C-alpha cells in the first residue's frame, strides 16, 4: 500500500510545481508594463476619503487593478510585488493616506 502511495505523492508534488507560459515577459510584469498593470496615479484622488468597500471598488476601477490590499495602521506586509494589485493604506480614522501599486 505504501509503495503505491509514494509515486502518487511524488507525481502530485511535481504537478504542483508546473508552470504555464506567461503572456508577458518577466521583465514586463516586474516593470508593471503589462496590460493588467495598476495605475497608482489614477488612485491619488481618493486620498482623504473613507476606506470602505465602495471606495475600494472605485479605486480598483480607477487604477485598473485586479486586486486590492487594505493597509491598516501598523500593518506588516509581504514584499511580493504584483503589478495588478493596488495597496490602499489608511489611518486610525479610517481615512485613506496612500494609494500605491504592487
Q: Give the topology string: H per helix, E per strand.
A: HHHEEE
Largest sheet: 3 strands, mixed
Low-confidence parts: 4-33
CATH H-tier superfamily: Trypsin Inhibitor V, subunit A
Structural class: alpha+beta
Number of helices: 3
When the domains are counted, the total is: 1
> Looking at the structure, what is the overall shape?
globular
Q: What is the overall pLDDT average?
A: 78
Query: What name is given to the CATH topology?
Result: Trypsin Inhibitor V, Chain A
Strand order of the largest sheet: 1-2-3
CA radius of gyration is: 19 Å
What does this molecule look like?
The chain has 102 residues and is of the alpha+beta class. It has one domain: Trypsin Inhibitor V, subunit A (Trypsin Inhibitor V, Chain A, 2-Layer Sandwich). Helices cover 31% and strands 17% of the residues. It contains three helices and three strands. A three-stranded mixed sheet has the order 1-2-3, covered by helices on one side. A hairpin with a 5-residue loop joins strand 2 (85-90) and strand 3. It is globular. Residues 4-33 have low confidence and may be disordered.
How would you sum up this structure in a few lines?
Helices cover 31% and strands 17% of the residues. By secondary structure, it is of the alpha+beta class.
What are the key terms here?
alpha+beta; about 30% helix; 3 helices; single chain; Trypsin Inhibitor V, Chain A; about 100 residues; 3 strands; three-stranded mixed β-sheet
Amino acid at each position: 500500500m505504501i509503495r503505491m502511495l509514494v509515486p502518487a505523492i511524488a507525481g502530485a508534488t511535481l504537478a504542483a510545481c508546473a508552470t504555464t507560459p506567461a503572456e508577458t515577459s518577466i521583465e514586463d510584469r516586474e516593470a508593471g508594463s503589462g496590460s493588467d498593470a495598476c495605475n497608482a496615479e489614477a488612485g491619488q484622488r481618493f486620498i482623504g476619503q473613507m476606506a470602505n468597500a465602495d471606495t475600494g471598488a472605485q479605486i480598483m476601477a480607477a487604477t485598473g487593478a485586479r486586486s486590492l490590499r487594505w493597509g491598516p495602521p501598523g500593518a506588516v506586509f509581504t514584499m511580493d510585488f504584483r503589478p495588478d494589485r493596488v495597496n490602499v493604506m489608511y489611518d486610525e480614522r479610517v481615512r485613506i493616506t496612500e494609494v500605491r501599486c504592487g
